[in-house]
Amino acid sequence: MKYRILATIFCLSAFVFSQNITTHTYAIKGLDTLKMDVYTPKNIKTNANLPVILWMHGGGFAGGKRDHPDEVKMMQYFSQNGYIGISISYRLLLKNAETGSGCDCPKAFKLEIFKQAAIDYLDAAKFIVDNSAMLQINPDKIIAGGGSAGAESILNAVYMKTYFVDHLETYKNVKFAGVMSLAGALVNAAYITKSNALPTVLFHGTDDPLVPFASAAHHYCIAEKPGYLQLDGSETISKKLDALGTAYYFNKVIGGKHELCMIPFDQLDTIIQFFEKTVDHSEIIQTKKIITKN
């Protein structure tokens, strides 16, 4: 029994310490110092350049943090499986706001929040591209990932850059290879085109009360409310990708709510395999997994 316990401790220690974690400042904006934690495999070869998942946490643009235990666990997992994991902080522009992100938050302010969050994400992506040699990342294999508010931000950054960004030249060297969105939506799926569509992983519940599953108002606000803003969720995005012949993996939960923004640890292997097939080998895989919530 004693040896079994020691073996368990050893395995856990090997998992925890099998990657190096470094923290970098990627931007300073006003009073916000924006940082990223980089999880690199400990045994990485000197001349290696690995694919990367660039992750943006959720929290309604008011909370959450890059080193939340779930984010840490996910970054550790990716770094154990051939990736460099990068989890970023960004400006939480709704922190302490009386309206929150709901129906009393004016549409124009919501759009500005989406814009600034997308820009923060693109600035983080630019930093890792500009420092790809130091970070040992492959700038051609960046997977954009996020949950909830983070998912909204990365979808807008990847697919609606021309809408939200004033100076596109700044990000001319930034490109993404894939997308992972957990309970996310973007402002207009019409911006997804044949030229910018990427292999995309989507998780969403049909009864999500905050981020629309298909096409509906953010928080399902009625038209008379200041916060009425139409968004296109995962169902609409998947149909667009399907029509374009682009690879996607859609985990649709009938009756699921906003808990689909949580990191699906039991499916990370499947997600990694999807990106290996679609990004590394250019396979066109279109999968819709439908689950009914108990």
Task: Describe the secondary structure blueprint for this structure.
Blueprint: H1 2-16, E1 19-29, E2 32-41, E3 50-56, H2 69-79, E4 84-88, H3 107-130, H4 132-135, E5 137-147, H5 149-159, H6 161-164, E6 178-182, E7 185-186, E8 200-205, E9 215-217, E10 230-233, H7 234-244, E11 248-254, H8 268-280, E12 286-292
Parallel strand pairs: 3-4, 3-5, 5-6, 6-8, 8-11, 11-12
Antiparallel strand pairs: 1-2, 2-4, 7-10, 9-10
Helix pairs in contact: 3-5
Overview features:
294 residues, alpha/beta, Rossmann fold, nine-stranded mixed β-sheet, three-stranded antiparallel β-sheet, 32% helix, disordered N terminus
Strand order of the largest sheet: 1-2-4-3-5-6-8-11-12
Q: Cα-atom Rg, whole angstroms?
A: 19 Å
Question: What is the succession of H and E elements?
Answer: HEEEHEHHEHHEEEEEHEHE
The number of domains is: 1
Reading off the top of the CATH hierarchy, the class is best stated as: Alpha Beta
What would you say the CATH architecture is? 3-Layer(aba) Sandwich
- Which blocks of ≥5 consecutive residues have pLDDT under 50? 1-17
The end-to-end span amounts to 38 Å
Helix percent band:
25-40%
Looking at CATH, the homologous superfamily is Alpha/Beta hydrolase fold, catalytic domain
Structural class: alpha/beta
Q: Sketch the major β-sheet.
A: 9 strands, mixed
Quote the beta fraction: 25-35%
The beta-strand count equals: 12
Average predicted confidence as pLDDT: 93
Tally of helical runs: 8
Signal peptide: 1-18
Protein name: Alpha/beta hydrolase
Organism: Flavivirga jejuensis
Domain BD-FAE-like: 36-161
